Amino acid sequence: MDNNKGLLVEERQGEAILVEQQSDNLLGKKVYLESYGCQMNFSDSEIVASIMSKAGFETTRNAEEADVVLLNTCAIRDNAEQRVRKRLTQFQSDKKNNPDKVIGILGCMAERLKSQLLEEEKLVDLVAGPDAYRDLPNLVTEVGTGQKAVNVLLSRDETYAEITPVRLDFNGVSAFISITRGCDNMCSFCVVPFTRGRERSRDPKTIVQEAHDLFEKGYREVTLLGQNVDSYRWNITKKGAIIDDQKEVVNFAQLMQKVADVHPDLRIRFSTSHPKDMSDEVLEVMSKNENICEYIHLPVQSGNSEMLERMNRGYTREWYLNRIASIRKHMPNCGISTDIISGFCGETEEQHQDTLSLMKEVKYDFAYMFYYSERPKTLAARKFEDDIPLVEKKRRLTEVIDLQQQHSLESNTRSVGQVHRVLIEGNSKRSDKDQCGRNTQNVMCVFPKTTFKKGEYVNVRVSDCTAATLIGEIV
Ligand code: 5AD
Ligand code: SF4
User: Fold this and answer.
1) Is the CB of 77 inside a 6 Å radius of any atom of ligand 1?
2) 375 lines ligand 1 (CB under 6 A)
3) Which stretches of 266-327 are assigned E, i.e. beta strand?
4) Ligand 1 pocket member 313 (CB < 6 A)
5) CA gap 208, 285 in Å, rounded
6) 202 phi, psi to nearest 5 deg
7) For residue 196, which atom of ligand 2 is closest to its CA?
8) What number does the ligand 1 atom closest to the CA of 374 have?
9) Are 237 and 200 in contact (CB under 8 A)?
10) Which numbered atom of ligand 2 lies nearest the CA of 184?
11) What is the C-alpha separation between 181 and 200, in angstroms, rounded?
12) 154-192: string of b/e by CB count within 10 Å (b at 16+)?
C-alpha cells in the first residue's frame, strides 16, 4: 500500500490514515472519506463509497469542498481514538465556515461510543456502525431534517456481499476483498467482538466474482480479509452440520483454491490468520499454488502460555511453535509476521522475557508491536487489573521493537544477492525514477524504473537492504 502517492498520510496496521476519492457525480454532492485502522476499515470505506455513489455522492479528496465528511474509525487502542477526536474537533471548527456540512463517524469507534459523540460531545452529526452502511444515505437525509442520525445496529448476516466496492486505492494493482465480518473469538484484550459483532462469512460466489472482475480491470493482487480468515465457512455450522445439502460447503482452504483458480497471474494474499485455527490444509493449498503468496501474518501476542490463557487466545506457546514448524515444513521460505502486545495485565518480567525468547526462536520477518491499552467492556477490563505502569509497558515494548528491528534486518540481509519476483505497484514514494513492489514474502522492493509498468511482474536482483526495504534492479 506504499504507493498511494499523495494519499497515504501514514501507514501502520492499526493506525493508518488514507484520504480517498472517486467519481460519478449525479447530484453534484460530494463526500470525503478518511479511514483509520486495519485493512478491513479501508475495505469497508470502499463499500461506503459505493453506497454513497449510488445515492449521488461523488467522492472527493478535498475535505473543504465536501458536503459530507465521514471518518471510518478504529477503537482498538486508546491512542487511535484520541487521534480521531482531534481530527473531529478540527472538522468542527472548519464547519463554522460551512454550517450545512455533515460530519459523520463510522466504524468501530462509532459502534463503541454509540450516540455519545453526537449527543454529549457534539463532535459529529451522524453515527453509523460497521453493519449500518446501507443506511448512510438515509442518515445523511435525517441530519438535514434535524433528526438524530444514529444507526449502530449490529447484524448477524450483513456481509455487503453483492455491493461492488468503489476502489479507492489508486494503484489499480492490488485490492482488498473482505470474506468474513465480525469476530467470535473474544480475546480478553480486544474490543473488536463488541464493535464488529458476530462472525459471518460471505457467499463464496460473490468473492470469486469480485476477484474475477478485479483481474479483468487490470488488478494483479487481491488480499482476502477477515478478522480470522481460518474460520471462514460457507453452508456449514461451527459444529460441522451442513446447512443445505443441495449446496456446496466451502472452508477457507477451498475458498483460497477457488480464488487462486481465477488466473495464474492474480496473486493471492490473506489476513489475518489465527494460530488456533490455521490448518495444514491451508498450508498445503498455499504450497501447491504458485500464485498464493508465501506470507502469513500469524499474531502471537505473547510468548508465555499463562499470558496467552489470560488473553483467551486458545493456544499455548508450544502449539504456536508447532504451527510455525508446520509453515516452515510446507514452505521453507515463507515470510512470517506477527502482532505482539507488551505489558498485558499481570505480565511479569519473566513472561516478557518469554516473548523475547519466542521472537528469537521464530525470527519473524516483520511485526506490529503495541503496548497494552485497556478497552472498556472487554473481558480483561472487567476481570483483570491493568497493573503494569505505562513507563514499564513502554520499556518492554522498546525491547520488543529493538529485537524485531534486528530480525527484520537479518531477514532482509539474507535476500541480498538473490533474485525475487516482484509485482510492480508503481513509482517509489521517494523518487519518480524508481519503482516499487512486493516480493511473495510481502517485503517492499525498490528498483530503478525501466520500461516495465505497474501491474507487471519482474525479477529483481537484490543488492542492498534496510530493515524495511529491499533495494535492487530488474534483471
Ligand atoms: N491493546 C493493545 N493492542 C491491542 N491489539 C488488540 N487489542 C489491543 C489492546 N487492547 C492488537 C493485537 C491485535 C492487533 C490488531 O492489535 O496485537 O492482533
Ligand atoms: Fe480481536 Fe482476537 Fe478477534 Fe483478533 S481474533 S479481532 S484479537 S478478538
Assistant:
1) yes
2) yes
3) 267-271, 295-297
4) no
5) 16
6) -90, 150
7) 6
8) 10
9) no
10) 3
11) 5
12) bbeebbbbebebbbbbbbbbbbbbbbbbbbebebbbbbb
Q: Residue with the nearest Cα to atom 4 of ligand 2?
A: 227
Count Cβ atoms below 10 Å from residue 90 Cβ, excluding itself: 11
Class of domain 296-414: alpha beta
Mean pLDDT in consecutive groups of 10 residues from the start of the chain, 475 residues: 30 42 58 95 95 95 94 96 95 88 97 94 96 97 91 96 88 94 96 96 97 96 97 94 94 98 98 97 98 98 98 98 98 98 98 98 98 97 98 98 98 98 95 96 97 97 97 97
**Domain map (residue ranges) of the chain:** 13-151, 169-293, 296-414, 419-474
Does the predicted TM-score (pTM) go above 0.85? yes
The pLDDT score that the predictor gives to residue 174 is 95
Q: Quote the pLDDT of residue 455.
A: 96
In CATH, what number does 169-293 get? 3.30.750.210
Is 14 close to ligand 1, i.e. is its CB under 6 Å away?
yes
The length of the chain in residues reads 475
Alpha-carbon span 161 to 202, nearest angstrom? 6
Instruction: Domain 13-151: state its class.
Output: alpha beta
Q: What is the pLDDT of residue 96?
A: 84
292 lines ligand 2 (CB under 6 A): no
> Are 468 and 401 in contact, with CB atoms under 8 Å apart?
no
Asked if residue 182 has its Cβ within 6 Å of ligand 2, the reply is: no
Does 301 sit in the ligand 1 pocket, CB within 6 Å?
Answer: yes
To test the pocket of ligand 2, the residue of 228, 271, 373 to mutate (highest count of ligand atoms within 8 Å of its CB) is 228
Q: Which of 190, 298, 359 should be mutated for ligand 1, with most atoms under 8 A from CB?
A: 190
Closest ligand 1 atom to residue 380 Cα is 10
CATH number of the domain at 419-474, please? 2.40.50.140
Report pLDDT for 169: 73
- Range list of H helices, 136-262: 136-144, 192-196, 204-216, 252-260
Please indicate whether the domains covering 13-151 and 169-293 agree at the CATH topology level. Answer: no
